[in-house]
Design a protein that fits this description.
This protein has about 450 residues and is mainly β. It has helices at about 5-20, 25-30, 40-55, 55-60, 70-80, and strands at about 90, 100, 105, 120, 160-165, 170-175, 185-190, 190-195, 200-210, 215-220, 225-230, 235-240, 245-250, 255-260, 265-270, 275-280, 285-290, 300-305, 310-315, 320-325, 330-335, 340-345, 350-355, 360-365, 370-375, 385-390, 395-400, 405-410, 415-420, 425-430, 435-440, 445-450. The protein has 5 helices and 32 strands. Helix 3 (about 40-55) packs across helix 4.
Length: about 450
């Protein structure tokens, strides 16, 4: 097996167009991989699906049906592709597959006759340890307000890094504060949920039970339970004090990527890659409603402060607003072409919705009319997480550029930038008193930040 233009084309198609579905259509795969025999193709297709789902390194290790020779060939292919000894293809939730490498050059594989293909794979230095996003030609809509003012570096709003919590063995994809602010809950691609003592910075409990990566965690309003959504298509409910699994909610047909408790704690909303949103009764552990309207995978779901509205963001370039009781769709906010909303947050008063997007910006929307109010610019990478401070005056955003940026929620002015993570920031959460922020990262750590 050698690196060729066809393989590069299928990778690029995967990134730019369809996510992992690009490998699920046999006819389409054969168009890109014409030189494989049928048996080789079927075997390779199964392997590539696992690469998309769990990353190249783990896929190779688990590929028991591949001969040792085949494994070595696949490994060499990926090493050639990324010009690195470590395998550098990792599945990223917002795109399906993202490439990273240890060279700043552009790799242009040669076609027969010495001609390079029209497209190329752009690599980033491994020292940044950040996933890449594809280069797309997009035309973001102009903000409906005057341009956001420049960063006010003289403002007295300053933060510092307080602690680094280490214990997870893979990406920390979600963090949440307990209602009393004494504990932090984290969910990781290592399939575990950890509960941390916020003051001492040490792990108290490690919850195991999911059969796949944990993408989302949420604390119940009374602090007694934790909900988690994972790659194994389930939502699990845990006893927050003892770490015991209380129940497993089953009904989704694909990864559960986002979970949130209703303000009264009686319901849980979940968003899935099966394109549905489900609402569950927490006491009985049963499904109440299934909301259908998105036409692609759902990335984020959030409740408004009163529980009467639910917002959802998906890969179909829309944000939808639903009635929290009936499940009826109320509004559909259209994002610019190819600009997916990767993270959502309601302001504490419910009047605004913040969305982090693929074009490196945060968009602020009117929570009632759905009108776009302004666009916050400053990040150099896709925005993976957003969170309002408890008083609603500030907004925090985490990006795969490795930074956390803090904004004035009214003016849209950037106030401060927190830097310290060695890679992309997947999740940010304010403490209940608003004086601290927890962040989870691709670098496997959680950092605590404190306002000075």
């Amino acid at each position: 097996m050698t690196l060729d233009a066809q393989f590069i084309r299928i990778i690029q198609t995967l990134i730019a167009e369809q996510g992992k579905e690009a490998f699920l259509d046999p006819a389409q795969c054969r168009d890109f991989l014409p030189n494989y025999t049928r048996s080789d193709y079927e075997q390779e297709r199964r392997f590539l699906i696992r690469v998309v789902e769990i990353g190249a390194a783990r896929a190779i290790e688990e590929a028991e049906d591949l001969s040792l020779c085949k494994k070595q060939q696949v490994r060499r292919l990926y090493e050639d592709l990324f010009m690195a000894e470590e395998l550098a293809a990792e599945m990223m939730d917002m795109l399906g597959l993202v490439l990273r490498g240890d060279t700043g050059r552009t790799l242009s594989p040669q076609q027969p006759g010495g001609k390079a293909p029209a497209a190329s794979v752009h690599l980033r230095p491994a020292s940044s340890r950040m996933p890449l996003t594809p280069s797309k030609k997009t035309t973001p809509s102009a903000p409906t307000q005057p341009a956001v003012p420049p960063v006010d570096r003289a403002a007295p709003y300053r933060w510092r890094e307080l602690l680094t919590l280490k214990g997870h063995t893979d990406t920390v994809h979600s963090v949440a504060y307990s209602p009393d602010g004494k504990r932090i809950v984290s969910g990781s691609w290592d399939k575990t949920i950890k509960i941390w003592d916020e003051e001492k910075g040490r792990s108290i409990l490690s919850l195991k039970g999911h059969a796949g990566d944990v993408f989302s965690v949420a604390c119940s309003p009374d602090g007694k339970c934790i909900a988690s959504g994972a790659y194994d298509n389930t939502i699990k409910i845990w006893d927050a004090e003892r770490g015991r699994e209380l129940s497993a909610l089953e009904g989704h047909a694909d990864t559960v990527f986002s979970v949130a408790y209703s303000p009264d704690g009686k319901r849980i909303v979940s968003g899935s890659w099966d394109k549905t949103i489900k609402i569950w009764n927490t006491e009985r552990g049963r499904e109440i409603l299934s909301l259908k309207g998105h036409v692609n995978r759902i990335r984020s779901v959030v409740y408004r402060f009163d529980g009467k509205r639910i917002a959802s963001g998906a890969y179909d370039e829309t944000i939808k607003i639903w009635d929290g009781e009936s499940g009826q769709e109320i509004l559909s906010l259209k994002c610019p072409s190819d600009i997916f909303s990767l993270a959502l947050a309601y302001s504490p008063d419910g009047k605004r919705i913040a969305s982090g997007a693929l074009d490196n910006t945060i968009k602020i929307w009117d929570g009632e009319s759905g009108r776009e109010l302004c666009i916050l610019k400053g990040h150099a990478g896709v925005v993976l997480s957003v969170a309002y401070s408890p008083d609603g005056k500030h907004l925090a955003s985490g990006s795969n550029d490795g930074s956390i940026r803090l904004w004035d929620s009214e003016s849209g002015r950037e106030l401060f930038t927190l830097e310290g993570h060695a890679s992309g920031v997947y999740s940010v959460a304010y403490s209940p008193d608003g004086k601290r922020i927890a962040s989870g990262s691709w670098d496997r750590s959680i950092k605590l930040w404190e306002q000075e």
